[in-house]
Amino acid sequence: MSQQQYSTGTMKVKNTAGEMIPFYPKTQINCVTGYDGNILSEKISGIENNLSIIENSGSIEILYEEPTAENTSNLSNESIIAWIDEPGFIFIINTYSLNSSNKKTSIPFDLYNVNNTTLTVDWGDGTTSTFTKSDYASSTALTSTSSTSLIHTYEVGGEYMVTVTSNNFSAVKIYANSSITTNSPIYFYKYTLRQICSPFPILNVTNFTGCFENCSSLTSIPADLFKYNTAVTSFNYCFNVCPSLTTIPTDLFRYNTSVTDFSYCFSNCISLTSIPEDLFRYNTLVTTFEQCFNSCSSITSIPTDLFKYNTAATNFGSCFSSCSSITSIPTDLFKYNTAATNFGACFRYCSSLNDFTIHIGSILVSTSSNFVTKKTGTTRTVYVPTGSTTQTKFNSVASNLGLTIIGE
């Protein structure tokens, strides 16, 4: 018996406790419980041997096994406990602790004025819905919480795995509008979303504005979440106020090389404790990081090269404002951001911030007010280009902010 681990595709598996768990094999297979208790597959999509899938310390392994008369006997459709769907989008919701009026979910997709395209949703509770253009026929349908046809309500509290498929995902849009209610039927329902299990398929989308905003129970996102949507230009407010999100995958934005806007992207994510150093490495066109990590009160440090490759960035206003656990600033954090014009309130209300020395690489800074909150007993030095507008602006606020400004 030889082991083969797969990493792509979409599979749904129940563990021994009957809980749905995500798994991603490469090939479509249909799994059923066999005579010996393992999960075996029928020979489909060119697979020559039967497969068994077993749990091992909370993980899933795929094992090749030659079919025999014994282990393929007594197979029945009623014993199916794992299966493959066509490639889709999968997420997990949790309604255990919610009252009946909030045991709901919705999907963040939009078919307004989209022809010849359907969305099919397996809600994870034995019910399925199919949506077409007519379900998204008016702007009211898209913004009103009374659009019950687009919102699914669960009768029993629990954890459910929701799977969305489409005959043409490349035509499907995401309704990106940070001004509408995030309980509208084309946003994730903010109280119940817990985990994203698969990347977004290729969509007709150029921004993910407010996509996960106010998803208070969201704890986990996959590294390849946005991998296939390379034309996206904005992630502003994307994860704003996701207080249960604890980590950011290093490669989350690796393939989104057209992005220009990360404003408010992780603002108020109060459980984040760290930032990956290469998070923005491939996003060289970004112009604004305004309030990107504002009020991320559990972040304790900032990677030295976080913005090294974002040389087009102009706006760092309030970027780390109210990050109350940060104790220091990397010396070269903004050394390479030669186009920057706005550092206003960048580190304002960072109450744990102590001594620091920082180099500002831009000669163009026009806003430096409230760069940091003054703290008695600290030594804080800012190096700026000699004779530049930057030097003038920082000199004007140095005394009030307790800074020493040195030209270089």
What can you see in these coordinates?
By secondary structure, the chain is mainly beta. The protein has three domains: 11-84, no CATH class; 87-205, no CATH class; 213-408, Leucine-rich repeat, LRR (right-handed beta-alpha superhelix) (Alpha-Beta Horseshoe). Helix content is 4%, strand content 19%. The strands form five sheets. The chain has a seven-stranded antiparallel beta sheet with strand order 2-1-7-3-4-5-6, with no helix packed on it. A hairpin with a 2-residue loop joins strand 5 and strand 6. The longest helix is centred in the C-terminal third of the chain and has 13 residues, at 389-401. The protein is elongated, with a radius of gyration of 25 Å. Mean pLDDT is 78; it is low at 1-86, 143-147 and 177-185.
Provide a short characterization of the protein structure.
With 408 residues, the protein is mainly β.
Main features:
single chain; 408 residues; mainly beta; Leucine-rich repeat, LRR (right-handed beta-alpha superhelix); 3 domains; disordered N terminus
SSE inventory with pairings:
Blueprint: E1 11-14, E2 20-23, E3 30-33, E4 39-41, E5 50-56, E6 59-65, E7 82-84, E8 89-94, E9 104-105, E10 109-110, E11 119-122, E12 128-131, H1 139-143, E13 152-153, E14 159-166, E15 173-174, E16 193-196, E17 356-359, E18 380-384, H2 389-401, E19 404-407
Parallel strand pairs: 17-18, 18-19
Antiparallel strand pairs: 1-2, 1-7, 3-4, 3-7, 4-5, 5-6, 8-14, 8-16, 9-13, 10-15, 11-12, 11-14
